[in-house]
Structure prediction request, 180 residues.
Amino acid sequence: MIFQKILQIEPTIDPAIALSISILLSTKFHEQSPISPQAVLEISPSIRFTNEILKYELYILSLINFRTLIPTLHDWVSLQVELCTKRLEKDVKNMIRYVSLLIIDLLHEDETILVDYPVGLLSAAVIQATLSVLTKLSGLFPQCELLVGYFGFDLDNLVQLSDFILCHVLGEELYFSYMW
Prediction:
């Protein structure tokens, strides 16, 4: 992963900048719809202008000798959680990230799901599934309609894939015992 390489090569770099630029670069190389530089500006307080993003991209690419790898689903979920929850408290962000990563780990038991969908949509659906579970358990978490604005996914498709993931992860009996 680009991020890990950067921190090994240049441990003094700001981790927030390194992560943001790493995800941006990875999406440019491996996704049909890369994240926008504006999204990087929103999650990286150290970067103030889009021309700084280009400077950091070139710097990071030169650090890793232009060798990139595809980001994992964990990377995508971590970035999307950061983007869609930036105004929430740290504990809430951590809870959403933790439950999302648990769902991903359960999905890895049957990897056929992981190859059937684009990673951006899959990670957004995992977060939607997480918020559905947390809302069901505590009633305190809003539905994730804000993902639509950030990532351009149709809410109906997102909810449908989210429900499919929940049914798969929880099992049909447990899934249908709740009104999701």
Notes: Residues 2-63 form one domain. The mean pLDDT is 78.
